[in-house]
TrEMBL record:
CDD domains: TRX_family. It comes from the Eukaryota. The lineage of its organism: Eukaryota, Viridiplantae, Streptophyta, Embryophyta, Tracheophyta. It comes from Stephania japonica. This is Uncharacterized protein. InterPro entries: Thioredoxin-like_sf.
Length: 68
């Protein structure tokens, strides 16, 4: 099963609440976040792809690619 992982900006409302946790865990560094909006696609617990920016068509293509 593929699972999307969203990484959003800390300047948004929910992001502000998560900022202390993210800083403590250093999540952005661990996942090599390059930009906001970044969506990581994982399958069976392993990252298989990522999408930087907002591109609905590209997201649909990537989901189809890894769907099984």
């Amino acid at each position: 099963m593929m699972k999307p992982v969203e990484v959003s900006a800390i300047f948004c409302g929910p992001g502000k609440g998560m900022e202390p946790v993210l800083v403590e865990l250093d999540v952005a560094k661990a996942y090599r976040v390059q930009s906001v909006q970044m969506l990581m696609l994982s399958k069976e617990g392993k990252q298989v792809d990522e999408l930087v920016g907002v591109d609905e068509g590209e997201l649909e293509r990537k989901i189809e690619k890894y769907k099984s």
